[in-house]
Amino acid sequence: MEGRGRPEGEPRGKARVRTQRRVALPPNLARVNEAARKEKSLRFTALLHHLDVAALERAFRRLKRGAAAGVDGETVATYQQGLQQRLRDLCDRVHSGRYRPRPVRRVYMAGFYEEVRRRWYRVLKRRSQRALTWKRFNVLLERFPLPAPHISHPRAAPVVA
């Protein structure tokens, strides 16, 4: 499949929406997106230079207003007070290497495992020729255990299941 070039007369720096479901990408991220689409084995090792205050503000605007507080206890409403100063500070910390995200709580991993277990039981129960009970399901899990969940982020602490 041949790629198509930019239509004549279209300004190079303008972000545009190609479909109704997609949002417009800034030109620098559109070029990264295009490179990733063309070369599947391409590795991106340094993308933080694309992060700026405007990108952080766009991400903040996409947050759900009624969302629960994060691991640091901050809610959307409290972070919004003095937003521009907070975003500039965050951007400076990211670029200087002083920003270190907090690791994800282990409680979520246990909850994730239990949710996968419940859903797997429902699927098997629906597809089973015989009535599947929790007792029979647990016997199956002993014979064919689900893999233990783990955090795959390189800086996160290992989780012991």
Please tag this protein with its features.
161 residues; mainly alpha; 2 domains; 6 helices
Descriptive notes:
This protein is an all-alpha fold and 161 residues long. It folds into two domains: 27-96, no CATH class; 105-161. Helices cover 45% and strands 0% of the residues. The chain is built from six helices and no strands. It has helices at residues 27-38, 53-61, 76-80, 83-96, 106-127, 134-143. The model has no long low-confidence stretch (mean pLDDT 78).
Summarize the structure.
45% of the residues lie in helices and 0% in strands.
Give the class from helix and strand content and strand pairing.
Answer: mainly alpha
Low-confidence spans: none
Please tally the β strands and state the result: 0
Q: Enumerate how many helices there are, as a single number.
A: 6
Distance between the termini: 47 Å
Query: What Rg, in angstroms, do the CA atoms define?
Result: 23 Å
Order of helices and strands: HHHHHH
* Average pLDDT taken over every residue: 78
Secondary structure layout plus pairing:
Blueprint (H helix, E strand, L loop, with lengths): L26 H12 L14 H9 L14 H5 L2 H14 L9 H22 L6 H10 L18
